[in-house]
Amino acid sequence: MLTVSGLTKVFPGARALDGVDFAAESGEVHALIGENGAGKSTLIKVLTGVYRPDEGEVTYRGKPVRFATPLDAQHAGISTIYQEVNLVPLLSVARNLFLGREPRNRLGLIDFRRMHREAEEALRALGVRVDVGRPLRSLGIGAQQMVALARAVSVDARVVIMDEPTSSLEPREVQTLFGVIRMLRGRGIAVIYVSHRLDELYEICDAVTVLRDGKVVHTGRIAGLDRLRLVSLMLGREMSEVRSEGVTKFTGAHGTGDEPVLQATGLTVRHTLHDVSLSIRPGEVVGLGGLLGSGRSETAKAIAGALPPDAGRVVVAGAAVRTGSTPAAIRAGISLLPEDRKAEGIVPGLSVRENIALAALPGLSRFGLVDEKRIDRIVETFMKRLRIKASGPHQKVGELSGGNQQKVLLARWLAMQPKVLLLDEPTRGIDVGAKAEVQSLIDELAEDGLGVLLISSDPEELVEGSDRVVVLKDGAVVAELTGDGVTEGALLRAIASKGGDDD
């Protein structure tokens, strides 16, 4: 259905793709994997007309093609679902589903009644029931991702590309997605599936291609391919080395101070949080567990001043912090790494240097004049410490891989020398190599005496990385796991419990 031969794409200072060969067959789910920066996103953008290749050929349905725009690719039958939902938040769900192909009546006007009816039918087929007249932004990220999926499959596509489609989905929604993928496979549609979650690859994919440093290092059937072998191919390391390092890069318990560096008590937001309290000591990593919608992100935002609480108190190092004020929280030493790095974190049009220095600018200027040399020193320090892969500090951050964008955000807040770091899904949608680096960094920060709040949907990451775990359900604390009680079983029982019991 789709074949790539000798594809090469060069950016200033970097060869993103180097002679890549790739083929997606009709009725096949083909995994495309590799570390962040391996070339996956660049390959997808070449296939969909975002980039023009410097060398090589793309053949679609037996004919050479070179799409000038993503719309050309879509009209030809190549549909893409991106990790960050690329829809229009202010428009309704129905308008997003039919954007650019709205049904029209005899007068050439948009037929809203038909559009709403067909939008409801498309979403109902995926098990999603929402008011299609609502603005898209009023839905959660998981529901928005399902809308993007419905849009992709409602187009008469012959190739569907899915870039980390499950990163924001609940387990029930993941199974719905897999049902749709099997339906597409049964129709003879080629599915290119990008994911860092190995369980998903082995459950849904037929074939796999591994990219490393812009080159194909393996392609073939996924059945029978050992998982450790797959990880070692991605990382370019020996299987024995991968086997010895375990599931995560967390090293275990941390030495913590006696007095809390952060105390949040009675945080309440109408219909969202109900009397949430937690504390973090210097050098301690406190996990915040629960399902999507349990109030994890809202708790972090309430502490960081981004979500004004109706009641509650936040204290840092013994001093009360004015709630509902992000500047007050930052001055007190609270930094938040948000879950949605695209919408709430990076500024894609600015450089790596500008993104890192953004929050620190007030402290790096006098009388309105910025100390450029101090910025250069800070940026150089954190690019080296976090091993940010870029052609240089002046490369636009929007051109970096997801893992490197996440590191830039971390660098921004570490440059503020915070007392408390709130990390909301810090490893979501990044590869195993970048994930290990972020996990090691969290350990290092805790050892340096920083208080860390870790929010993660990955039970293994939460259990192995945390000294204590506070579990939320429906906006309230239902359990706190400590010591030997910090286990995956205890975490799952707490999430499934009724109220605060373990039934």
Description of the structure:
This is Sugar ABC transporter ATP-binding protein. It is a peripheral membrane protein. Pfam families: ABC_tran. The protein is of the alpha/beta class and 503 residues long. It folds into 3 domains: 2-245, P-loop containing nucleotide triphosphate hydrolases (Rossmann fold); 251-333 and 419-503, Rossmann fold (3-Layer(aba) Sandwich); 341-417, no CATH class. 34% of the residues lie in helices and 24% in strands. It has 18 helices and 22 strands. It has helices spanning 40-47, 70-76, 93-97, 112-124, 141-154, 171-186, 198-204, 227-235, 239-245, 296-303, 326-332, 341-344, 352-357, 372-385, 402-414, 432-447, 459-465, 488-496, and strands spanning 2-11, 14-24, 29-33, 55-60, 63-65, 78-81, 159-163, 190-194, 207-212, 215-221, 262-269, 273-280, 285-289, 311-316, 319-321, 334-337, 365-366, 369-370, 420-424, 451-455, 468-473, 476-482. Strands 6-7-8-3-9-10 form a 6-stranded mixed sheet, with helices on both faces. The protein has a 6-stranded mixed sheet with strand order 16-19-20-13-21-22, sandwiched between helices. A hairpin with a 3-residue loop joins strand 11 and strand 12 (273-280). The longest helix has 16 residues, at 171-186. The radius of gyration is 23 Å and the shape is globular. The chain starts with a strand and ends in a 7-residue tail after the last helix.
